[in-house]
User: What shape does this take?
Amino acid sequence: NAGVTQTPKFQVLKTGQSMTLQCAQDMNHNSMYWYRQDPGMGLRLIYYSASEGTTDKGEVPNGYNVSRLNKREFSLRLESAAPSQTSVYFCASSERGSNSYEQYFGPGTRLTVT
Amino acid sequence: KNEVEQSPQNLTAQEGEFITINCSYSVGISALHWLQQHPGGGIVSLFMLSSGKKKHGRLIATINIQEKHSSLHITASHPRDSAVYICAVRTSGSRLTFGEGTQLTVNP
Assistant: This one.
């Protein structure tokens, strides 16, 4: 099992460009999340999806859109990138079970917007 | 004030030392998570606690619900324990709120 995979690992964008970050999990989890991590701050939730077909805003949703394509995949789109969106982005998934809501993280995408 | 506060922010220790990282939170929670972020960036879950104490190898996590406080202890620390340790609380559903992390460096 690959767990949670993210593509790309690195990306440089110019201000105003758009891109989609891809995330997939093979653990049959219902819930998926997108976070950003900035120096001196904790991980902050951008959007999450409690189950296939649903998405909800997190703490910092402005400038982002998401799509829960199916149970496996959850993508994050930047329509018009801004330097303030320079960050490391993590996707995660979780499922309620014996380890209730333990979250499994992808390797991260390091995004620079110039 | 953040809902989740960790201390210290940075910690340097010598190999073999006993290490304690603290986490305080200000909201009611259903569970508290400790995670480790490796120097390469990957994040893994270490513990999930709703009461008491858990132990895994040289790592011990405790929580005091009444005092809204948790500690992560590392016994006989080793350079490979060098990482960022992150506390996160779950208040409802599956969403987590994260502390800023504690950067631990263990020198040989």
About this structure: Residues 22 and 71 of chain B are 5 Å apart (CA to CA). Chain B touches chain A through 22 residues (CB under 8 Å).
